[in-house]
Amino acid sequence: MIKVMSFNIRYGLANDGENHWNNRKALALARIQAFGPDLLGLQECRDDSQADFVRLGLPDYHFHGIHRGGPGDTALEMAPLLFRRSAFELLDTGCFWLSVTPEVPGSMSWGSAYPRTVSWARLASQSTGVVLTYVNTHFDYEPPAAIDGNAKVLRQWLDQIRHETPLIVTGDFNTDRESSAYRILTGDGALIDAFRQIHSNGVDAATFHAFGRPEPDEMTAIDWILVSNHFRVLDAQIDRSRVGNLFPSDHYPVTAVLDWKA
Description:
Blueprint: E1 2-8, H1 21-35, E2 39-43, E3 45-46, H2 49-57, E4 61-64, E5 77-78, E6 81-84, E7 88-97, E8 117-125, E9 131-138, H3 144-161, E10 167-172, H4 180-186, E11 192-193, H5 194-198, E12 223-227, E13 231-238, E14 254-260
Parallel strand pairs: 1-2, 9-10
Antiparallel strand pairs: 1-14, 2-6, 3-5, 4-6, 7-8, 8-9, 10-12, 11-12, 13-14
Helix pairs in contact: 3-4
């Protein structure tokens, strides 16, 4: 089995009052530890004391993240991936930008608000030797053309490798399952939505909640775990844990338990 989690932990400098990172970081770490993922994709993790806290709290994991770049303090944000060293051996890693020039650090296209990255790792199972590619990302939130552009660049890259290795993709995609970006990524059965495999009616699938205050018209089912058809989805859940009015983040973490198909 492979346990996978995707978790937007909300950047540590945000002015979130009682839900500031310093108040909720132990709770965020506790939710990760409670599930115990073999593969973990984070979003909005800054390469400062926030990333230091994650690394220190998860010493059994390899951490791979690249600054997204661009102007201002947000340049230090990453969409890092982590994997449990006892579960996987690292074969290769990389990063590219979701733009028309993916190899150019900090590049943006389609009027994007920020540069956006894809982190990936080629991993071999410690128990079986089977190789897979794990991908983590964070799409832009505006304009719609940027979200679609992000999806097209990612899909083109995935198409180049999906016949070579099984794929697991985690991310905050900043759009819902009715969007063209979702169709781009899941079209032709290229990737399967783990949550929908278990919860086919899609009820109560929201993941973004603005610390318990989602807007009624907001597209909130935006965090997904997508897998190639090499995998059987045994379970998929949204972790809605909190302590009183304190939340681990303004997103709920999403989880999946996978097994290899025969």
